[in-house]
Design brief:
The chain has helices at 3-15, 18-25, 29-43, 59-86, 99-116, 129-137, 201-210, 226-233, 244-254, 282-302, and strands spanning 48-51, 54-57, 91-97, 120-126, 143-147, 157-163, 167-172, 190-192, 217-220, 238-243, 256-259, 270-275. With 330 residues, the protein is α/β, with parallel strands linked by helices. The chain has three domains: 3-84, Arc Repressor Mutant, subunit A, CATH 1.10.10.10; 90-165 and 268-309, 3-Layer(aba) Sandwich (D-Maltodextrin-Binding Protein, domain 2); 167-259, D-Maltodextrin-Binding Protein, domain 2 (3-Layer(aba) Sandwich). The strands form three sheets. Strands 4-3-5-12-6 form a five-stranded mixed β-sheet, sandwiched between helices. Strands 9-8-10-7-11 form a five-stranded mixed β-sheet, with helices on one face. Helix 5 (99-116) crosses helix 9. Residues 321-330 have a biased composition (Gly residues). This is LysR family transcriptional regulator. Belongs to the LysR transcriptional regulatory family.
Amino acid sequence: MDPRHLVQLATILEKGSITQASKHLHLTQPTLTHNMQTLEMQAGGTLFERSRHGVRSTPLGEMFAREGRAISRRLQEVAEVTARHRHGIHRQLRIGTGPLVGAALLGDVVRETLLRCPELALSVQSDRPHLLVEQLIDGRHDLVIAPSWLERPPPGIERLPLIDDVLGVFCGATHPLAAQGALKNADDLRWISLGSTSPFDQEVREMLRSVGVPRARVDLAVMGEAFMLLDILSQGQHLAVLSRFALRQLAPRFALVEMATPGAAKPRPIYVWCRSEALEDRATAQVTAVVQEVAARQLARIHPALGQAVHHRAAPAKGSDGAGLNGENV
C-alpha cells in the first residue's frame, strides 16, 4: 500500500471533492481516481461515496484518512526539522499549554529557556487541555502544561504536579457586581465559557451551585483562546469561572475583578505532562525545571503564601491527586 495514496484520500475528504483535491495535490483527476481505485482494491471496501454535494467518507475511508493525516503531519514535521537545521537549530522542544496558563506563564518560560539553552528551539501550541493530552499521546508535543480530569495518567504518560491552583469567579471592573465584589442575585446574569464540551463541565456547575448560582445563563463560549476571552470579559457583561493563578497574573492588564465566593476554594491543580521516556531526556528536564521555577516565582509574587504550592518533584504523581474542575480556558 502506497502511503501517498492515504495522504491523497485524506485530502479528498478534506476538500470535499476529487476536483479540488487534484488541484491541491497538483495531480490530474484521472491519476487521483486511479490511485483511489487501487487503494479501495487493497482495502477491500469503498472508501468514500460520491454525490452532487461532493464526497462523503465511509467508516473504512475515515480510518484510512486518519492514517493519511498522520502521515501528512509527520512529513510536515520533517520539513520543519530540515528548515531549522539549515538555520543551525538542531533540537526543538514542543510545548502544549492551556490558553490562560500559557498567557500567564509561557512568556517567562520561553525567555529563560532560550537564555539557558541557546541551542534549543521551542514551539508552543495553545489548545483546550483535554485535547492537548490527546495530542501528547499522539506524539505531537514533548511537554504539556494543563490541569487533569483523570484519576491517573494514560499508559506511557507521566504528569508532574506543578501548581495547586484553585478556581475563581471573575468579571470586568464595570460589571454590575464588581463594586460589591460578591455573587448576589446572580441567577439572571450572563456567563462566558463554562466549557460546555469539557470533561470539567459538571464540576464547574457543581461549584456554581455551591456558591448560590443554581442556573448560569451561558450565552458565549470562547475555547482555546485567552486574549479574546479576557477582552470580552473586561467589557463588563459576563462572569466566568477561571484559573485563579492565571487571572491574578493577567487581571491587571484587563481590569478584571475576582468575586468573593463562600466556602473553601475549589481545587484545580495544574500539571506538567510528558511521555514516560522523556523523563530521561536532558532538554525536557531542563525545560521542566524552568517551568517549575517560573511558576514558583510568579506564585510568590502574586500571593507569597501560595509560593509553596509549586511542586519541584523529579518523580511523577501517582494515583488520585484531586482532578481539576475547569480546563477549557486554563
